[in-house]
Design brief:
By secondary structure, the protein is an alpha/beta fold. The chain has a domain of about 140 residues. The protein is built from 10 helices and 7 strands. It is globular and about 50 Å long. The N and C termini lie far apart (about 35 Å). About 35% of the residues are buried.
């Protein structure tokens, strides 16, 4: 059986995704029909797609740092080169870091609304794009504590659509520290969120999984 091309064309990534779907042996009945989903009350979920196919689609959404082309605020290429780096991590991992003090991890209502609107633009061939999420850190009492974040709704939407087994780009910046000044003092400090929960990784480990965005 041939793959249903409708959703692939709507998602704007037909070549590599079609290849990935074909390689994984995905059948027609396993591919969700995006037009039908647009008319429903729920956004489509692509949990059933093979992880390589889901990741290929997610990568398509994050292809620009141009504020005029992406949804949400995003760090410019120059700023991230001078003041930080971009890491790939799961939306769940990002949301744990970006969780507001005393708040729940996920915001399902807003994620569903965002996903519905995003998928509608995909179906209309508008090729919507997302800006990378951001985490700002500040050295406090020998730890790097999250004291700012941007992009929780985007991360929630990706989790709503694809689940937690895909990665999204996340910009990391340490307040008042340039990238070339991220020395031993900072690279091995523990990273914690506003509630004091540790990420379990250091900046050194995060920098080993960087992503270059235009």
């Amino acid at each position: 059986m041939k793959c249903n091309k409708l959703i692939l064309e709507a998602l704007g990534h037909i070549d590599t995704t079609a290849y990935s779907l074909h390689k994984e042996g995905l059948k027609d009945y396993q591919v969700l029909n995006i037009n039908g989903a647009i008319k429903s009350l729920e956004p489509i979920r692509m949990y059933g797609l093979p992880t390589p196919s889901k990741q290929a689609l997610v990568n398509t959404f994050y292809q620009s740092r141009d504020l005029s082309k992406v949804k949400g605020n995003v760090t410019t290429k120059t700023d991230i080169e001078y003041f930080g780096f971009t890491n790939m991590m799961s939306p769940v991992e990002y949301l744990r870091l970006a969780a507001k003090r005393g708040s729940s991890l996920f915001d399902r209502p807003k994620a569903k609304d965002f996903a519905k609107n995003f998928q509608k633009e995909l179906a209309e061939d508008k090729k919507p794009r997302l800006g990378a999420s951001t985490i700002w850190l500040k050295e406090t009492d020998g730890k790097l504590v999250v004291n700012g974040h941007e992009g929780r709704h985007r991360a929630n939407m990706i989790y709503e659509m694809f689940g937690g087994d895909v990665d999204i780009p996340v910009d990391f910046q340490v307040r008042n520290i340039r990238t070339h000044d991220l020395n031993e003092k900072y690279l091995d400090l523990e990273i914690v969120n506003e509630d004091g929960r540790a990420l379990g990784k250091t900046l050194r480990e995060l920098r080993s999984q960087t992503k270059d965005m235009k």
